[in-house]
Amino acid sequence: MRPAHFIASVVTAAAAVIALANPASAAPVNYVALGDSYASGLGTGTYDGTSGSCKRGPLAYPALWAAATAPASFKSVACSGARTGDVINGQAAALSTSTTLVTLQVGGNDAGFTDVITTCTFGSDQDCVNRVNQAKTYIANTLPGLLDNTYGTVRGKAPSARVVVLGYPRIYKVPGTCNVGLSDTKRSAINSGSDALHNTISARAAAAGFGYIDVRGAFTGHEICSSSWWLNSLSWPIEESYHPNKAGHQSGYLPALRAVVG
């Protein structure tokens, strides 16, 4: 007859083996995507009819991530043209105490992205450089406070969520294969604006305790004027210009997001 302590140890070991073979189910993921046109999917050419001018679509990286991972719930309220104030006053309402994952991409419109591109497209080299420098001053001096307010609102609405902030790619390869279009001076100026956004957004995300994904490396070799574009150049509809295309979301943003959140 086995001693009681021996039997107890066998039972304990067996229980441990069973536990290893049947790990506890992972907690359900309730995912909400916030942000601007880069997060909504403008540029992919495929949009949900119900999203109207927000231009949300199934080929945007938040929707692709949700399709690949099947979270318990998924909602994107990202919207073309959104600024930090739109996230605070509108989009953040989609968050709750049950939200476990948030992705957020915003700041480019606050810095005047559309006006920068317009000026650089139709103005002189110096006009472009001047407008980009104006945007960079705004990014350095005004955008940090706007981001702090936005991140604070997100944390307040979703206190237990993991929040991941995504950045913007450099638009152009310089020098590149393009023989027409913007000069290298203009292309370099626009890229410097992307770098300025990275510096400010990454710093404020870190200060808020949020994760940050820098996609500039992922898009290297796939900018406009490269041999494999993941971004639209001047295109039609005009609003899709200078946004990630299908490949930009599928091969650029999605893998970068999955590398961080799984």
UniProtKB/TrEMBL annotation:
CDD domains in alphabetical order: SEST_like
InterPro entries per record: SEST-like, SGNH_hydro, SGNH_hydro_sf
Cited Pfam families: Lipase_GDSL_2
UniProt signal peptide: 1-26
Residue stretches making up the SGNH hydrolase-type esterase domain: 33-250
Gene Ontology terms for molecular function: hydrolase activity
Alphabetically ordered keywords of this record: Hydrolase, Signal
Keyword Cell cycle in annotation: no
Protein name: Hydrolase
Organism field: Lentzea flava
